[in-house]
Amino acid sequence: MEQKKDIKSMSLQQLTEELVVLGEKKFRAAQIYGWMHQKLVTDFEEMTNISKNTRKMLREQFELVSLKKIDCKISAIDGTRKYLFGLSDGHVIESVLMKYNHGNSVCISSQVGCRMGCRFCASTLDGLSRNLRPSEMLDQIYQIQKDIQERVSNVVVMGSGEPLDNYDNLLQFIHLLTDANGLSISQRNVTVSTCGLVPQMHRLADEKLQITLALSLHASNNDVRKTLMPIANRYLLSEVLEACDYYFEQTGRRMTFEYSLVKGVNDGQQQADELAELIGNRNCHINLIPVNPIKERNFVQTDAKNVNNFKKLLEKKRINVTIRREMGRDIDGACGQLRKRYMDQLKEEHSDGGVCADRCGEEASN
Hints:
This protein has helices at residues 12-21, 27-37, 52-61, 134-148, 167-178, 198-207, 222-228, 237-251, 269-279, 304-316, 337-351, 359-365; strands at residues 5-6, 62-63, 68-74, 81-86, 92-100, 103-108, 111-113, 128-131, 152-157, 190-194, 212-216, 255-261, 284-290, 321-323. The chain is α/β, with parallel strands linked by helices and 366 residues long. A ten-stranded mixed sheet has the order 3-4-5-6-9-10-11-12-13-14, sandwiched between helices. The protein has a two-stranded parallel sheet with strand order 1-2. A two-stranded antiparallel sheet has the order 7-8. The longest helix has 15 residues, at 134-148.
């Protein structure tokens, strides 16, 4: 049986071309596109100004991706919401809604799992299962916006997965997300994180988008970075920073450097001095993140006093730096934690002769 085409991953132009081949008028594409990306419908039958025959054709020819909400945990501390979504093939992914004074921000996943192996991240513990399609990235935002009945104004691609390891799908997602015919979120309100895939950073720079690129730096020298991030064995810091400079040259967008503070590893005065020297006079911003401990690793979070001391040391060097506000700590707020706990529970039930490990697939299709 021929696989249906993923209609929600198509641009308006691509959809128009597809429908014309199928004998439809060009204007029909804009109607259908609006139903999907503005009204956020989950079924072709909801497209009430489309004829029954056309809706029948759409069902036969196309898949309309819609994620299944499996779980949603709401923080009693700050109202952060952590969502667990089921995909059509039984995989699960997670997304986070963070409410700020300036608007609603959603952090989405770009892959099922991750193969980058960063030592402090739960997303990578079980490796990479597959890439997410543009529609699956979009629908995390759509489902959350429908759930809270409020507009999402900022999107961060910083959940499970390495976005630049899913480059083509990521790029299509950005174009769809920022399209005036869809949610029309400004590119300047989109942030993409990377652990430092140098060739892809250059490719992204050449796109000349106006998104923010955030580098997961986490160390002030190559040796420490290698102990935290396997990608550092492939690309030296000098190569990664050169790619950052190129991104700024091509886009005019200042870089954000993410720096997770791990007690006794990268949080001392020497590391602060090295970090200040490393980034030099670059037009950038450093985001200090107290590492979120996971039970599979023995990393310990730097205490608040040391975090503030580290910040002051950088500020003395005239570095633009902030401490990221911790969100959702009481609901497994760190990347991959909720999904990991869910998958471990399924494995336990399966090994005990209980619920089959395919349960997540059943839930996603119900």
